[in-house]
Amino acid sequence: MKQRALWSAVLVVGLATAGCGSASDTGPSSGGGNDKLVVWDWKSGEPSAKAYVEKAKADFSAKHPDVTVEFVAQPFDQYYTLLGGAIQSGKGPDVMLFNGGGQIRDRVDALVPLDEYVAEDKQRLAGWDAFSKDGKVYAGPVTLQGHPIYYNKALYEKAGLDPASPATTWDKFLADCAAIGKAGAKCFALGNKEGAGIQFWMSALGSGILTAQEYDDWIAGKRDWNSPNVKRIFELWKEAGDAGLNNDGANSTAMFNDSFALFQSAKAAHVIGLMSDVGHWKDFNEFLTPEKLGVMSAPVVTAGTTPSLAYDGGIGYGVAKWTKDPKVAADLVRSLTSTEALQAFYADAGAIAADTTIDVSQAGPAAATIVAALNSGKPALHVALSSKTLDLMGRVSQQLLSGSISVDEAVKQLAASDQAG
Amino acid sequence: MPIGNAEPSVRPVPPGRADGAAAGSAGSRRGGGSRSVRGGSRAERFAPYVLVAPAILIIVVLRLYPLLLGVNFSFTGDGERNGQTVGFDNYLELIEDPLFRTALGNVGLLVLLLPVAVAIPGLLATFIYLRVPGHRFYRSVYFFPAVLSPVIVGAIFNLLLAFDGPVNVLFEAAGISPVDWLGNPDVAMFVVVGVHIWATFGMALVVFLAGFATLDAALLDAARVDGASLAQVIRHVIIPGLSRTIAFVAVTTMVGMLTSMFGLLYVMTSGGPEGSTYLPEYYIWIQQGQMNRPALASAASTVLFVIMLVVGLLQVKLLRRAGGED
């Protein structure tokens, strides 16, 4: 009993002293030495990224022959947890890979603004916005990530539709879906187990729902959650679910990669996929053949809107503020985004690279359609939201599909979360 | 529970030895020490502290100090308020977060489901002990899932319980409408707990079988001679005879459910659908890893620690009482 009292006393003293300071060290200290740069990512360990890493290393060692570069491939599942630990302790890699959007914006405190170093690359590369905050760039984009609507031309033919001219309006699209349903396939392959399905939905269809003004305001941070068009995004999501357009059990289907598998095995005619990494044109080409894979633009829901491709910088390398010489580290980022390196990445890993000068004519019509749409493309709607709001949106979207929440209530909760963050 | 373990390991130090040391130092204080003079007595007085110092240091440096750092950290802010003292803000945020409340509610659900998790291996062990036909076969089959990692178990059940998976195909064949096992928030938590019990009950079964080995067979024979039914044998002979084993299994099962369901949750539901399968551990991981809120995660960890402390102390008490009954 005495012993327990002692432990309690220790605990109480601990609690009493708590709050006297932070356990985190915000002071700077270096990861690698003067002549060594450490890079963290989740890509370099993959065989498909080998050529990319070699090209980038060669490019960098031509500029800085005395600096060695060490790539440390972390498991993606753990990546941001490990990075969080490194940032907390103020020690870690000099250069690190980030997903664009919330993941990097939440962590810019630990990064060096790169504007002065990457000025020359601004024109050649696309997707900077996803790596910027408050007008400063924090990473060089490697790939572009976006949400094209892929469709299976073979299923269109089977349903008696013209695969060369997919629907351009929502009403026509619903009619096409009805025909596809009669032919024995679902309209959408949807995996919303992780709650990511709604993000893809919002970004892929948003440009046909929001007016151009609303769209730009949304990206700029002036999001009007009371707008009927914003509400329409979630209404359509619910209607599509209620009408049985999605595969059964969407809330328990993993997007990666069960929903893509449904599309690849021709059980569903459309899927909102990705441009890079996984669930993209290269994967689908292998199963459906390049000739049978199409990319369509969003059907117009609100009259007067001009649908555009939603894309952002996908992944990009940033420089930690504790690195010894930011100039050298920024040079490494420039090597990692050089045309040669990115050409290798596009060809081997199946990504739409950030370098717009790369020729993709060998990759099939779907990739060509995507690249052609890049010029008129806009940032994806969901990327503008904080990770907290995205997490909530995932849960709310599941509730919408299961019918346990109304659209009004869902939008209300999201608005509160968005405005609080 | 390191604290729970620390007690018994300290206690068995024979009281005789402590008395002896006291007597020795008392003797030398009187100046009658025949060996060396004061140097020796001082060494003897400090020896126990020196000897336990490594163990204490390890506990203090590697357990208590990080624990205090974590608690301390939970009173600071995240993001722009990094490093600033924010008082109980993180705890208030936790209380207001419906997700964290769901996680705590699920802990309560686990406690409620504990009797089921204990009864299943108990009953099965009873049948094996009573030598039902094929008991040898069942003994090994029941233990088998215990050697699988939660990730593999989760992946297996993901396939089985998918909406278009084999279980629902069987259901449809039997004319029952399919169930979205992992997509229905009212069902998912029970499914995950069920899979967890399936995956871990083998270990408890072995413990029960070991307990049966100490059960006096003469009592069973006597009960049978007196004409007791199976239910009566279980109620009046087996349960009282195994009270210690039951208490032990209850404690280990509870700890297992509270601390090692992360892998299953991660693979099977990712906390969904609709956030219905969150547990504090998973919540902590999401806040720290995905939301970049380490201080909030520390606050949640502290709450989880306090819960575990309370549960642990209650269970130690329970174990002791069960031990004292006979």
Q: What is the second-level CATH architecture of the largest domain in chain A?
A: 3-Layer(aba) Sandwich
Q: Regarding CATH, which class of the largest domain in chain A? A: Alpha Beta
Class derived from helix and strand content of chain A: alpha+beta
Radius of gyration of chain A, in angstroms, nearest whole number: 23 Å
Q: What proportion of the residues of chain A form beta strands (DSSP E)?
A: 5-15%
- Count of domains of chain A: 2
Number of strands of chain B: 0
Q: Ends of chain A: how far apart? A: 47 Å
Major beta sheet of chain B, specifics? none
The fourth-level CATH homologous superfamily of the largest domain in chain B is: MetI-like
Structural class, from secondary structure content of chain B? mainly alpha
CATH topology-level fold name of the largest domain in chain B? MetI-like fold
CATH superfamily (homologous) name of the largest domain in chain A: Periplasmic binding protein-like II
| CATH topology grouping of the largest domain in chain A | D-Maltodextrin-Binding Protein, domain 2
Distance between the amino and carboxyl termini of chain B: 25 Å
Assembly state here?
Answer: heterodimer
What share of the residues of chain B lie within helices? Answer: over 70%
Biased composition (Low complexity) (chain B): 16-28
Transmembrane segments (chain B): 46-65, 107-130, 142-163, 187-215, 245-268, 295-314
Organism (chain B): Micromonospora sediminimaris
GO cellular component, one term (chain B): plasma membrane
Task: Give a description of the structure.
The complex is a heterodimer of chains A (421) and B (326). Chain A is α+β, with helices and mostly antiparallel strands. Chain A has 2 domains: 36-145 and 313-353, D-Maltodextrin-Binding Protein, domain 2, CATH 3.40.190; 148-309 and 379-420, Periplasmic binding protein-like II (D-Maltodextrin-Binding Protein, domain 2, 3-Layer(aba) Sandwich). In chain A, 44% of the residues lie in helices and 13% in strands. Chain A contains 17 helices and 14 strands. Chain A has helices at residues 2-17, 50-63, 76-89, 102-105, 115-118, 153-158, 170-182, 197-205, 212-220, 228-242, 255-264, 281-288, 326-336, 339-350, 365-373, 387-402, 407-420, and strands at residues 36-41, 68-73, 95-99, 132-133, 136-137, 139-141, 143-146, 149-152, 186-188, 268-272, 293-296, 311-313, 315-319, 352-353. In chain A, helix 2 links the parallel strand 1 and strand 2 (68-73). Chain A is globular and about 65 Å long. Chain A starts with a helix and ends with a helix. The model of chain A is unreliable at 9-33 (pLDDT under 50). Chain B is mostly helical. Chain B has 2 domains: 2-73, no CATH class; 91-325, MetI-like (MetI-like fold), CATH 1.10.3720. In chain B, 75% of the residues lie in helices and 0% in strands. Chain B has 15 helices and no strands. Residues 1-36 of chain B have low confidence and may be disordered. At the A-B interface, helix 1, helix 3 and helix 16 of A face helix 1, helix 3 and helix 14 of B.
